[in-house]
Amino acid sequence: MIISSKELLQKAKKDNNIVIQSNVTSASDVKAAVHTSKITGSTLMIALAEAHQKYFSLEEFTGITKFYLEHFGVDAVLHFDHGYSVETIEKALKSGCSSVMIDGSSKSFDDNVMITKEVKKMAKKYGASVESEIGHVGSAGDDKENVYTEVKSAQKFAKLTDTDSLAVSVGTSHGVYNVKKPELQFDLIKELSQSLDVPLVLHGGSGTGFENLLRAKKYGINKLNVYTDLIIASKEGMERSIKDKMYESAVLDAQKAYGNCLKEYIEKLCNR
User: Fold this and answer.
1) Which of 45, 68, 69, 49 minimizes the C-alpha distance to 58?
2) Catalytic site residue 81?
3) Domains (ranges, CATH) in the chain?
4) 179 pLDDT exceeds 90?
5) Residue tagged active-site, from 15, 29, 75, 81
6) Whose C-alpha in 11, 23, 57, 87 is 20 to 30 A from the C-alpha of 96?
């Protein structure tokens, strides 16, 4: 069953818990994610990023995820991640996504507020929830791209937009950390959590380390996005397998590796 993220994340905030968002780029990823949700008993947000539609179309994502949710008998949030325009967000909502992220973090504060309010109004018609971003989470290895979230700006933004969850920039980055490791600003996380009623989202969870992530959870992060570690695990699983097996067996081994990596995140971070 497809559910909204609003109640799920509000409960996580109340319980000082984390919800894992598992990003996917294929039917194999979706099957691994939903199966892992089933065996762990943990409700996931399963996401497709706008930039990944070149690998996996929006229609494939929603249709195949719905199929596996029914097949395994589990609930999940279908999330459209890092949508950059009202038009792409509308397509995601029409396709069946129950949660959308409008990423206006590279825009001015006023423009970010304006586009987030427009998306919030649109999502309400579909019964969907909205994630937005204040500050800017950049790419790993280029810390100049990161703009840390300011508490006062986050308070003002949340009040003006009525966003359902808020992605914050507190020291992580997207992708692989080749240059230096993330340095999470735990005091900032704590201050943001105490100053805001809205659940906080941490992008760029891969490579951050479970000790850091557990501290981030303790101080108020309620949703964690994971992608890079999952696809690296899949790649390594396929590479180990394909030396001795046929392609189709290697795909299954990649799927198993994706699921095992996701399972580790759930077991180490989530209260269930």
Assistant:
1) 49
2) yes
3) 5-269 (3.20.20.70)
4) no
5) 81
6) 11
